[in-house]
Amino acid sequence: MGIVWERISFESQEEYREIFSKTPERSAHYTFASLWGWDAACAYEWAWEGPLVWIRANLPERLLMAPVGDWDAVDWAETLPKSWFRGAVFHDVPAMLARRWQEALRGRIRLEPSRNEWEYVHRVEDLVALKGNRFRSKAQKVRRFMEVHRPEFEPLGGSNLGEVRAFQEEWCRVRCCETERALEEENGAIRATLGSWERLIGLFGGLLRVRGRVAGYTVAEPLDEETVVIRFEKASPEFRDAYQAMNRLFLEHSCQGFVWVNREEDMGDPGMREAKMSYRPERFVEKFTVTLE
After folding, report:
1. pLDDT at residue 201 above 60?
2. pLDDT at position 107, please?
């Protein structure tokens, strides 16, 4: 019997999370909350095969992705040729798995770096303290924001979810999200995530207020015991330096139990890459496109 694909569903959320927790190198793209949030844009399916769950996207085109699960329990030299056809291309494959495949199928596999998909990983304590010359400009911006606006921070959830939804819609109106596909799809993912807040396991976040008004918010989730992933982060263009303040305050108030913060990829956007690199990442979750030959 070959691979059997089915649409992702809430009914299997806990089982998927259990298998995902055994993945040796975890990517932010593969959490259940990520798949669910972006499902409208990507039409995700999964296939359950022993210790693995294979993932594929169907929009805007069909793309095979990496499997999650216990990679150590799999004989890749046998599994890959048996389960997949020659010429199969896998996208968004974490470096650890890509190299295991390369070792198992010497000469029958091609790896290409996917720099646009690399996830930026920082030390939480660095982005809270903002010490030293490398963070001088960030620290100055946060200090200025705090002095001028004296913001309030509160956990996201319950009664303020409605305020965040309204803030996001206004943010999108100002940015004309409907005219830019990436922003429109992200807005759909944010709507889906906030709309399923009580059902998606592990989500948490923070809200920034200035004189009672919402000035920004963050949505996050644990990736593992030491790492938190920033899913969405928005700030009002009305308040200068609000993004820098939101970033620091959320980590300070909500993430002190974590060592690392994963701020996801830059999608190849030059401005986003410059902004992410300005926070001086400690390391990356590197990704590859892998072709079976």
Report:
1. yes
2. 85
Quick check: 32 and 16 in contact, CB under 8 A? yes
What are the chain's domains?
6-118 (3.40.630.30), 119-264 (3.40.630.30)
Contacts 24+ apart (CB under 8 A), 221-225: 221/31, 221/33, 222/258, 223/26, 223/28, 223/31, 223/262, 224/21, 224/26
Q: Is the pLDDT of residue 177 over 60?
A: yes
Average pLDDT over residues 20-47: 98
pTM above 0.85, yes or no: yes
Q: What angle do CA 125, 128, 131 make, to 5 degrees?
A: 85
Q: Is 127 exposed, middle or buried (0-12, 13-18, 19+ CB in 10 A)?
A: buried
Residue that has been written with the tokens 């091609």 in this structure? 110
Cβ contacts of 101-107, under 8 Å, gap ≥ 24: 101/76, 101/290, 104/75, 104/76, 104/77, 104/80, 105/76, 105/77, 105/80, 105/81, 105/292, 107/293
Q: How far is CA 141 from CA 124, 134, 189, 254, in A?
A: 18, 13, 29, 21
Using the predicted structure, report yes or no on whether residue 136 has a pLDDT greater than 70. Answer: yes
